[in-house]
Amino acid sequence: MRKISRKTLWALALTLMAALLLAGCGGGGGEEENQAGQGEEEKFKVAFVYLTSAGDAGWTYAHELGRQYLQEQLDWVDAGEYVENVPENPADAEQVITQLAEQGNKVIFTTSFGYMDPTINVAQKYPDVTFVHCSGYKTADNVGAYFGRIYQARYLSGLVAGKATESNIIGYVGAYPIPEVIRGINAFTVGVRAANPDAKVKVVFTNSWFDPTVEKQSADALLDAGADVIAQHMDSPAPQQAAEQRGKLGIGYNSDMREQAPGAVMTSPMWNWGPYYVETVKAIKEGTFDPTPTAGSLTYWGGLKEGIVLLSDYGPMVPEETKQLVEREKERIISGEWDVFYGPVKDQSGNVKVAEGQKMSDDEMLSMDWFVEGVEGEIPAPQS
After folding, report:
1. 80-132 residue pLDDT tens
2. CB-based contacts of 88: which residues, under 8 Å, 6+ apart?
3. CATH of span 150-270+310-376
């Protein structure tokens, strides 16, 4: 496993340039050195770009588990390179993605929404490299876009929260007011209201994916407003820890957060990226990978049925009755009989957005920019 910092990437690039200059001046190892490596089978190199630390217990950690699974399952793959803490601004992201392409990686997974445009830009310069971007909506001949129907797992977790609340106020710490986050809030609220029609979901946005201090402050504000359950679309367990410190309950995200806040976390919507990474790398190696969108704007959008999303195990405070309710609803979704945004669905003003007997299309879900009935909060206007 090779964890690579951005500083190290530049050092490697300089080393490569020096080696090329030396070779041009007659400094190569000669025929014997070239023959020495001929018996070794070159491995298929795969790299990952991470927004935060691989051990963040959240979003990046889930991808890191997927990377480890890929490495364990395919012995012909070298998936040892990943770069942590890469900002989403174009200059930093493009620099890192470019260096990974220069190092001979055949596949590069860029694992955060803000890497979308940098991925597209770099991919144009490296047509022989396959880039696969998580959660964006742009594709190209050598760029795929993948995500999971985490809204399905969020709906199930909403059932748990709706059954647990006594104040009928549930707090939700959200990241950015983009369709991915809004869709998750809505799915969670549909679940809450299915279990408890009197409950409300209060939402605050932090405008960050990972900021434990702000996340905790936001959770505390929601707790002060009467929330007795805290849910989140953030990458750290800080909202869950805030709930635990106040003797309240919580719903984690990305990975099983019970270890970080065992007294609060009832369950967590989780990702299971490993099988997807294995199948995708196989397809790319075999030349069968097709980046063409198949679900809205995404090349891949699997859900509970495919096992790409799931709920973690339950905390001891979750009653058996609630678990049975979740299992019944999960089976309905997996069977295809029903999905979360089947009508009737109203917005927070009471207007019917999806009529009874109808369902939202993938495109409509992927571009969702309104709150469902039961959400308290506003979607800020996009920042210019």
Report:
1. 999 999 999 999 999 999 999 999 999 999 999 999 999 999 999 999 999 99
2. 51, 112, 113, 114, 115
3. 3.40.50.2300
